[in-house]
């Protein structure tokens, strides 16, 4: 989607065959011309779409890598659809060859607002809340216990990595003790 380039300036001939002119004193002068002409040069307005194109690329990249779910770092289910609607609206404006600079600027503002709102929905888990339910309890201890001994090289790691609450690459006594201390507080 390239930026819309302004049309080059053009010269248009204008022929005046007759004219009525005012002398600003309630008088009027009439005249005719046999062969007079005048050239008028009109420059086209420049529309810069680059900021909108760059923003669309940035937001699409974030959209493509975002994952919906209930885990830490994921986005609530349905949030990507809302962002995709905003991307589509901005893409419509950027591909419109008749779009004005005002429309481009408004699309930048709207897509920025939608992207900021989307980023604000990213789920942030509480350390020790292994289940992701917002509560640290014996259920979290159970998850860590069931994954006890796994390391980051274990085939099941992607399923249980959230049980490594201290992020040392191994699920062990340190993770169990961390959660137990949180429960006892």
From TrEMBL:
<dbReference type="GO" id="GO:0000272">
    <property type="term" value="P:polysaccharide catabolic process"/>
</dbReference>
<feature type="domain" description="Dockerin">
    <location>
        <begin position="123"/>
        <end position="185"/>
    </location>
</feature>
<dbReference type="GO" id="GO:0004553">
    <property type="term" value="F:hydrolase activity, hydrolyzing O-glycosyl compounds"/>
</dbReference>
<dbReference type="InterPro" id="IPR036439">
    <property type="entry name" value="Dockerin_dom_sf"/>
</dbReference>
<dbReference type="InterPro" id="IPR002105">
    <property type="entry name" value="Dockerin_1_rpt"/>
</dbReference>
<dbReference type="Pfam" id="PF00404">
    <property type="entry name" value="Dockerin_1"/>
</dbReference>
<protein>
    <recommendedName>
        <fullName>Dockerin domain-containing protein</fullName>
    </recommendedName>
</protein>
<dbReference type="InterPro" id="IPR016134">
    <property type="entry name" value="Dockerin_dom"/>
</dbReference>
């Amino acid at each position: 989607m390239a930026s819309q380039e302004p049309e080059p300036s053009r010269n248009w001939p204008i022929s005046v065959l007759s004219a009525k002119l005012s002398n600003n004193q309630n008088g009027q002068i009439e005249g005719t011309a046999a062969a007079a002409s005048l050239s008028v040069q009109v420059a086209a307005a420049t529309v810069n779409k680059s900021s909108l194109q760059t923003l669309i690329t940035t937001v699409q990249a974030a959209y493509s890598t975002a994952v919906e779910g209930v885990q830490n770092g994921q986005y609530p289910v349905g949030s990507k659809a809302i962002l995709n609607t905003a991307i589509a609206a901005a893409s419509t404006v950027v591909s419109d060859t008749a779009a004005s600079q005002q429309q481009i600027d408004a699309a930048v503002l709207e897509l920025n607002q939608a992207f900021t709102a989307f980023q604000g929905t990213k789920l942030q888990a509480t350390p020790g809340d292994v289940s992701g339910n917002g509560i640290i309890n014996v259920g979290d201890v159970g998850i860590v216990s069931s994954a006890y001994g796994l390391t980051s090289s274990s085939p099941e790691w992607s399923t249980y990595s959230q049980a490594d609450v201290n992020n040392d690459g191994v699920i062990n006594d340190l993770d169990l003790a961390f959660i137990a201390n949180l429960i006892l507080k």
